[in-house]
Amino acid sequence: MNLHCKWILYTLTAFDADDVFGIIKESVEGTMGGNIFQQNRVDQWTSNVVELCLSQLSKLGKPFKYIVTCIIMQRNGAGLQTASSCFWDDTTDGSCTFKWENESMHCIVTVFGLAI
Amino acid sequence: MSDFAKEKAARLLKKRGSVSSLGSHDVKAKETAGKTKDSISTLSYIEEPGHHEDNPRPTVQMENTFQLAPYRRFPVLTVNDILKDVLSSYLQEEKYEAELCRQMTKTISEVIKARVKELMVPRYKIVVLISIGQLSDQNMRIGSRCLWDSSNDTFSSHSFKNSSLFALANVYAVYFE
């Protein structure tokens, strides 16, 4: 198969981190831009961010299953470490992590896409 | 094929083809920082050491198995026990320190992945996510949502706390149809 055809197959079937980045950025900035950390609203924010991401991702129409994780943490000088380990098919599956912060909080969103 | 799509494909191939550090799953390579009025956002790709080839493997066409559902479901309770076991054995006596916990998250995620793989549940893809954080007076919320087939796919989660740190382990199992 020549390179041209490989490119076509690759873009149609592999996880595209660029598209996903745009989607996550919009969801996070739309939900949390300009807000201060408020304990009673954090619940709503995490649900919002994750649900917005998921609905945009499903509109992409690709044959993927998605896992979206969101961590919102108050900025208090405390440390946080996150790691992930995945058992999947390297050629078709992928993940994308997006970090966002303002003066009062941190937000980390990770999207895993697994091909069906 | 349009030029735009070709350029995008070339960019993707180049990214996938680059080799990252050996041995550890460090977040590196591309970091695009954008500054808006009062917030900073960064994007990082997780580069895995598996992408060594210049040309990606073309998609493999699988033969039909005529199998509608998994023969063996994912054992959630067993995995819960594994998570409890691993987290308490690795973190029972530890104090939060940035360098130590960085290594610890990577180690623990590899260990959990290996133990879940030992269960040998066929046709399931596994994603393990570990977070270790320092206990101070901060408030934090961790949430996740998944778009999948809820009859076949599932997840398992466990959290652990001691006097100076907390840890959260999530395992997602996705059926490969």
Automatic annotation (TrEMBL), chain A:
Pfam families: Tctex-1. One of its GO terms (molecular function) is dynein intermediate chain binding. It is found in: Cytoplasm, Cytoskeleton. Keywords: Cytoplasm, Cytoskeleton, Dynein, Microtubule, Motor protein. GO terms for biological process: microtubule-based movement. One of its GO terms (cellular component) is cytoplasmic dynein complex. Gene3D superfamilies: Tctex-1. This is Dynein light chain Tctex-type 1. The lineage of its organism: Eukaryota, Metazoa, Chordata, Craniata, Vertebrata. The gene is DYNLT3.
From TrEMBL, chain B:
GO terms for cellular component: cytoplasm; cytoplasmic dynein complex. GO terms for molecular function: dynein intermediate chain binding. Pfam families: Tctex-1. InterPro entries: Tctex-1-like, Tctex-1-like_sf. One of its GO terms (biological process) is cilium assembly. PANTHER family: DYNEIN LIGHT CHAIN TCTEX-TYPE 5, T-COMPLEX-ASSOCIATED-TESTIS-EXPRESSED 1/ DYNEIN LIGHT CHAIN. Belongs to the dynein light chain Tctex-type family. This is Tctex1 domain-containing protein 1. It comes from Esox lucius (Northern pike).
